[in-house]
Amino acid sequence: MDVLTTMTLTRRTFVRTAAIAGIGGAYFGGAHLLLKDERWTPNRSFWVSRGREPAGAPLRGEREADLAIIGGGVTGLSTAVHALLRSPGLQVVILEAQYVGFGATGRSGGVLGNGTEMGTPPGTEDTVPFVIDLVDRLGIACELERAPVAQLDPYRYALGLKHAAEGLGATVHEGCRVRSIEDGAPVTLRGDGFTLRAPKVIVATNGYTPKLGIATSRLFPAHTAAAVTGPLPREILRDIPDSILVMTSGEMYMWGRKAPNGRVLVGAGARYFYDNGLHYSGDGFLFPALHRCMAKSFPALASYPFQHTWTGPMGCTADQEPIIGIAGGSGNIIYCGGYCGHGIAMGSKAGFFLAGMLHGEKPPAWMLRPTLDLPGEPLRYIAVNAVINLMNLGLYRMPKHD
Ligand SMILES: Cc1cc2nc3c(=O)[nH]c(=O)nc-3n(C[C@H](O)[C@H](O)[C@H](O)COP(=O)(O)OP(=O)(O)OC[C@H]3O[C@@H](n4cnc5c(N)ncnc54)[C@H](O)[C@@H]3O)c2cc1C
Asked: Number of folded domains in the chain?
């Protein structure tokens, strides 16, 4: 059934489901307030569980490049592909801390949507056909479904972009975490056992960006959850829509899709942790609450437990729209992110905009807009969680942009 299901649950149901990501008011001011946690949540997604490709070799020693890209998610990989399509022979080096697809990209639902979380500002009306065309042109095997709501395997999409970038001449180093960015011309990137110098640097680390000391007042990570059932009987699956959207308040929702081998994949929630924390595997009640929400919406699924559950950090901004920004005194460090859970198609298109900027082209003006400066801690923790909780309780709506 190719139907987008939108339904508003009753308030009573919501109060139960509000617990999905621990965003009920009870959490506010909780134990994480003074906790600084430097760990990163491993990628436990269904997509990666189906088989992880061996990571590329890390960079060792000193190297120079024309373009350095930090981050091997859709943003960084799409930037590399488009930079090389425009300038064959450019020396492009991608540095990925873990492995390509480790971040939000390889944990996402792989649902493709035009526009952004908040609307369709200029340049975003065609992000889905943009991805479909890219997948076709590059011959990426990622189980792309061209249904009314297109979807793919996001980890295999990332791997396909990586191979395409390498085929065009890029070098992708994995297991290479950048620890410092020294401004200058060239910019110097340093990590354990390596130094990379490049006249242009793209920071494509999205929710991880504040930990690099970049865009700290503009970007923050909000952790969200996803889960997938095992293969379901055909007669159960027949009555489940291909694409799911269930409102849990005026603003928050449970999303979902059918996944390979007759599974149903759902996700919901947002949590912010002190000091842009990047470690959250889900509280004890998180996945039971997500399952209850799924079963309430689709009673036939009640007796089918989740087979995989995982979480991941979405890069967010104060107005929930993605940004491109310039950092550093020489203007040669460009960062991009903040898709607020809507970045598979948009991040791919952003890579096209970023590659254009290397040729002096301007991205859509709205992406360069100033945003509200987020305070430092502890005010950031209080403010971000207050907004999340109010949205979850249906007491606050973000103003839509169109
Ligand atoms: C559970 C979940 C479900 C989602 N579902 C969808 C969906 O269905 N559709 C959709 O459009 N969007 C979805 N999203 C959002 C989407 O995944 C993101 O917007 C998008 O993947 C962002 O891509 P990115 O390349 O900018 O960042 P990421 O994919 O997060 O990539 C950043 C990379 O940078 C690396 N990195 C970080 N710091 C460093 C460093 N210091 N040095 C080197 N490397 C570093 C990280 O390891 C990471 O691999 C979902 C997100 C989550 C978490």
From this structure: 2
